[in-house]
């Protein structure tokens, strides 16, 4: 059956943010996997797109306009997101566009957080060095989603990223690929 133009429109946008992508084992690997997923997935490598931190708000908002699923892919740094993703959030999720009067652009889309941490699961346990369960660091993400009408999906987290061997990395990549398929729905499969 002939494919319609609508089927080539990206329904998933992966916002990947890593200040040193060339050194990354986890984020870079998942970014490459997303890029292989098909034309319905638009992968945006923020540090490659905006090395000068001068974010093109209109281009970023346009990229999100037709998306059904937005993925934030990054290493956890100081219990949160890398600075360029924070700036992206400040610029792109603008008043009157993402929230406030007339700010409906993101309403009904899904947001999926995919992150890795150097800390192990035990480090995020009750007696661990980080002092709190990892979920305690997520409310700013969840509330940003809620305020803008994004549907919050269960995050995918790889703890102990530095110690992850090839099998663990591959298993995490596979879980990511399954999640991408499940949450975005491959429009080519219609
Ligand atoms: C500046 C900086 C801050 C970091 N902060 C944290 C942190 O708060 N919690 C944590 O568990 N790991 C932290 N890490 C470790 C990273 O999360 C880890 O190196 C990363 O998830 C590995 O993924 P990658 O292979 O994509 O680089 C930090 C690393 C850097 C460079």
TrEMBL record:
Q: Which UniProt keywords apply?
A: Oxidoreductase
| Cited SUPFAM superfamilies | Flavoproteins (SSF52218)
Source domain of life: Bacteria
GO molecular function term, any single one: NAD(P)H dehydrogenase (quinone) activity
The record's annotation in InterPro entries points to: Flavodoxin_fold, Flavoprotein-like_sf, KefG/KefF
Pinpoint the Flavodoxin-like fold domain residues. 12-175
A single Pfam family, by name? Flavodoxin_2
Q: What is this protein called?
A: NAD(P)H dehydrogenase
Organism per entry = Rubrivivax albus
Q: What is the lineage of its organism?
A: Bacteria, Pseudomonadati, Pseudomonadota, Betaproteobacteria, Burkholderiales
